[in-house]
């Protein structure tokens, strides 16, 4: 069965108090819209259509950033959810299969739930995702009779009796795409809100002798974001779930509540993550690595057996091969550290390639930026970079070469060579003793006067 996703994302999100459209607010470093789209990916949709409206150009750019093949349609006036779906329908005229409607501000519907809906379509013409609400509030209510769904009534239009129902509408629904196209055309806006309600397609289908059913899910999945406080709540819910998934997959987290993950963080089993490690987007860590306390990682790859931190910073393009050690107060950006490289203290490595088993001494800096351009530093295998070496890029250090402590290296160093780029030491016997005597005498004279 082919699937098309229709993701509604036209709303302004007034209660966010923001210039950014609601669906672009981030949870774990990704727009909430991406989370909604990602859930739908499990169904391997043949087509994805996002309905944008408020700040449509920004929404479109974000959608294409996630899925360049997605189609974005613009709903210029937000006349209701059925009207929004109707805007997507011309994109499905040549499509044969089911359409699933998702909401861009409901980011946590699980893949299993969407699969269950798709399966339930064998029994019903329309499948609606429902949930038992702890506090049903203003949600639409699902009016059922045994297994089947009769209609959905919006809170504003509901009777006292209907308001007492606790089975609520998540908004997500699934139906044959051409049936859905026909039904949304029939929806009217003669209701309390004066809007075209998508949930009305249920009663319309029933009136035409079709069947509708409910697939239930956990209320946590239907969590919608309407305010900054709810966004913070969604972030916390995401983090809690992501941490427990890592634990289930064999990652060691001694203090899970202090570790912050990104939407796409991947960590292999038996890797140890110490307290207060922060992940930005685009991080993959292989099995059996150790991420020590207070490290910050983004856009990087850490291989098996590597040790990072405490207090290390891996920035985009940092690629650590197996058994690499990156220690405290070391920053790595856009650099490849081959197997067994050690950079254990107080170092900046940017725009560099470092060969196997090379040791980078404390305080070493790749001076990669001249104020306008960035330049690369290349260091061979088994080299020894003395402490406090300034590597003024572009520069290369050969295999097995050494640089003297405190050197400023501006010229390439051939393999096996020792480069010294510092002033020669001058030692003056007894000079310190005489200097101290002179200074102390001067101070004594001043304090008398
Ligand atoms: C909707 C449902 C309600 C359900 C609730 C679950 C309707 C009429 N009601 O109510 O039964 O319990 O969701 O959260 O559908 N949107 C558009 N264009 C529009 C209108 C809305 O794209 O013209 C988008 C919004 O940006 C949002 C989503 O559709 O992402 C839902 O719209 P919203 O107005 O929040 O519906 P609710 O009143 O919450
Ligand atoms: Ca809503």
Secondary structure layout plus pairing:
Blueprint: E1 3-9, E2 26-27, E3 30-31, H1 32-41, E4 47-52, H2 56-66, E5 71-74, H3 81-88, E6 98-103, H4 111-120, E7 126-132, E8 141-145, E9 148-153, H5 160-163, E10 167-176, H6 177-186, H7 200-207, E11 212-216, H8 228-248, E12 252-253, E13 266-267, E14 272-273, E15 278-279, E16 284-285, E17 290-291, E18 296-297, E19 301-302, E20 307-308, E21 313-314, E22 318-320, E23 325-337, E24 342-354, E25 359-360, E26 365-367, E27 377-379, E28 384-385, E29 390-392, E30 395-397, E31 402-403, E32 408-409, E33 418-419, H9 431-448
Parallel strand pairs: 1-4, 1-6, 4-5, 7-11, 12-14, 13-16, 14-17, 15-18, 16-19, 17-20, 18-21, 19-22, 20-23, 21-23, 22-23, 23-24, 24-25, 24-27, 25-28, 26-29, 27-30, 28-31, 29-32, 31-33
Antiparallel strand pairs: 2-3, 6-10, 7-10, 8-9
Bound molecules: uridine-diphosphate-N-acetylglucosamine and calcium ion.
Q: Count helical runs.
A: 9
Class by SSE composition: alpha/beta
Compute the number of structural domains: 2
What is bound: which ligands? uridine-diphosphate-N-acetylglucosamine, calcium ion
Distance between the termini: 99 Å
Which homologous superfamily in CATH is the superfamily of the largest domain?
Answer: Spore Coat Polysaccharide Biosynthesis Protein SpsA, Chain A
- Overall, the morphology is elongated
- Tell me the Rg in angstroms: 31 Å
Number of E-type strands: 33
CATH topology name of the largest domain: Spore Coat Polysaccharide Biosynthesis Protein SpsA, Chain A
Largest sheet: 19 strands, parallel
Helix content: 10-25%
Low-confidence blocks of residues: none
CATH first level of the largest domain: which class?
Alpha Beta
**Would you identify the CATH architecture of the largest domain?**
Alpha-Beta Complex
Strand content: 25-35%
Mean pLDDT: 97
